[in-house]
Amino acid sequence: MSEKTDDFKKYVTQFKKGDTVYSKDEEQEYFYIINQGKVQVKLEEDDSILISLMKGDFFGEESLIEAQLAAYTIEVVEDSDIIKIPYGSLVNMMKKNTAISLKILKKLSEKNLKMLENSMSMTKTVSASVKKKKPVKPEVSEEDEAIDPDVKAYLIIKRSNRIVQITKKNTYLGRRDYTTGFIPDVDLTKEDEEKYISRKHSKISYVDGKFYVSEEPGAVNGTFLNGNKLTTGVKHDLNNEDEVTLCHLDIVFKF
């Protein structure tokens, strides 16, 4: 994006090694381009590093959705000059210059694919470690029964780019209920700002080596598989790259 260097100079912010650009769950209002230096994208829960970014890379795409919360923590690992662009200014630049828009989309797609690959690699490492230890498996109910760790299945929530691994034979998707304390296996509360998704909206099942998706009784506003509305309570085959939509929220299934 060197042809637009002058346009971005006023947005350059300097960060020192060890600084946190922003933390997971902070509200996002800026889009970031690394002009010089290096940062790491981290999972706050276990401090895992999903990807390292350097000159020419972008992050902060959550800002493209109004009032969206950060999906990851960004930590500076080398003194860095980072272009910090307010959402409104970025939109104006993208409207004036389609080349900028295309480059941003390409770089973000490459980054998200790399993060997914790294996440899957980390899961394989953890699974191998668990196998070596041969832990005693606790008794669990049928609803909580785990999938064999060799089975790799993920959901990519497109609005936030959050990646969720499916680890149970019955996985419920929905919103948490602060009154009763109910929390679904895949909690979509933060992504569903409009509150259209039901508390227990849909279920992904793993039966005899195959995945299925179904809408739960009482769910409102619809569940869709590749654009086709599901009938409540009926299981439908779920295949790699299928898109499940809960009301308005698109989720990609990876297997």
Polypeptide structure, described:
This protein is of the alpha+beta class. It has two domains: 114 residues, Jelly Rolls (Sandwich), CATH 2.60.120; 111 residues, Tumour Suppressor Smad4, CATH 2.60.200. Helix content is 20%, strand content 35%. Strands 1, 2, 3, 4, 5 and 6 form a six-stranded antiparallel beta sheet that branches. A hairpin with a 2-residue loop joins strand 16 and strand 17. Helix 2 crosses helix 3. The longest helix has 36 residues. The two termini are 36 Å apart. 24% of the residues are buried.
Structural class: alpha+beta
**Relative strand content:** 25-35%
What would you call the quaternary organization? Answer: single chain
Share of helix, binned: 10-25%
Distance between the termini: 36 Å
CATH architecture level-2 label of the largest domain = Sandwich
Largest sheet: 6 strands, antiparallel
Low-confidence stretches: 1-5
Q: What is the averaged pLDDT score?
A: 84
3D shape: elongated
Structural domain count: 2
**What is the succession of H and E elements?**
HEEEEEEHHEEEEEEEEEEE
CATH domain class name of the largest domain = Mainly Beta
Radius of gyration: 20 Å
Task: Give the SSE layout.
Blueprint: H1 5-8, E1 12-15, E2 20-22, E3 30-43, E4 48-54, E5 58-59, E6 73-86, H2 87-96, H3 98-133, E7 154-157, E8 162-165, E9 170-174, E10 186-187, E11 202-207, E12 210-215, E13 223-225, E14 228-229, E15 236-238, E16 243-246, E17 249-254
Parallel strand pairs: 9-10
Antiparallel strand pairs: 1-6, 2-6, 3-4, 3-5, 3-6, 7-8, 7-17, 9-11, 11-12, 12-15, 13-14, 13-16, 16-17
Helix pairs in contact: 2-3
